[in-house]
Write a structure and sequence with these properties.
single chain, eight-stranded parallel β-barrel, 46% helix
């Protein structure tokens, strides 16, 4: 299992808010060269900040994967401008999300409608991450989530795009592994990145969980016996070990990696990944 754990650490991606991203030289000291760094777009985000963050990630020798939030885009012209700015910066990968706005600012209520506009393909952007929710979505039912994934997969096939799934973060391995089994049984062979919270203060993590729509799981975590004795710190190690056991036992060879939500704790997340790669 140690080899599987090391593979998880080597293939891990991380998620960092643009305003929490350190200078390029500091980032290069934290993460391995070539690491995929995902850059969320918050409700009050500014696209120039995303572009500047992408430039910093590239300068550190890593791969930026900015979030493109469909509901934040006001028009096809604005979408084209955002995509052009990314291409000019050197970005070749995107994470497609609906976004946190209650109502769309323009004609794109979700990622499939943005894809079906044709503008991403027109700009040559064909490396695309899409979302999934092992613990369910607070506003979207399972059937609609399945239909959205079907539309995204069909788009990838018709445009020769490289598509992968990044899940919302989970607090325990069971929901992630159950979701993974259902997804594979349904015939989905896309690469998958299981979202895992990095090592952060438990209070901070629960606050993020409530804001991200996984409040029920957060409350269940808070009620677990012994949580008060965890010195206020969350550890992703049990989930990583469970995923490593799954990978060590699997036979289908389909790609599964981890995606680390850092929640402002990039240095701690980087140290945890380093320890996972080299436990000595």
């Amino acid at each position: 299992m140690s080899a599987a754990l090391r593979d998880l650490a080597l293939g891990a991606s991380v998620e960092v808010l643009a305003r929490q991203l350190p200078p390029a030289e500091v980032l290069a000291g934290h993460l391995r060269r070539g690491t995929a760094v995902y850059l969320p777009f918050p409700p009050k985000g500014r696209w120039p900040d995303t572009i500047a963050a992408c430039e910093r990630v590239l300068a550190a020798g890593m791969r930026p994967v900015p979030h493109l939030a469909a509901r934040s885009v006001r028009s096809p012209g604005e979408l084209g401008d955002r995509l052009s700015a990314l291409v000019e910066t050197g970005v070749d990968s995107l994470m497609l999300v609906a976004g946190d706005h209650a109502a769309p600012a323009g004609p794109y209520p979700d990622a499939p409608t943005m894809l079906e506009s044709g503008l991403l393909a027109d700009h040559g952007l064909r490396r695309l991450g899409v979302t999934s929710y092992p613990d369910g979505h607070p506003l979207v039912g399972p059937a609609d989530l399945d239909e959205a994934l079907r539309r995204k997969t069909q788009y990838a096939r018709s445009t020769s795009s490289d598509l992968w799934v990044v899940t919302q973060f989970v607090f325990a391995p069971a929901p992630a592994l159950a979701w993974l089994a259902r997804t594979r049984e349904a015939g989905c062979t896309l690469p998958v990145r299981i979202g895992v919270p990095g090592p952060v203060a438990l209070r901070t993590l629960i606050g993020y969980a409530v804001r991200c729509g996984v409040g029920a799981s957060a409350r269940a975590l808070k009620r677990k016996p012994g949580v008060a004795r965890l010195a206020g710190k969350w550890s992703p190690t049990p989930i990583a070990r469970a995923l490593a056991r799954h990978l060590a036992a699997r036979e289908n060879g389909l790609a599964v990696d981890i995606h680390l939500f850092t929640f402002g704790g990039l240095a701690d997340a980087a140290e945890w990944l380093s320890t996972l790669r080299d436990p000595s």
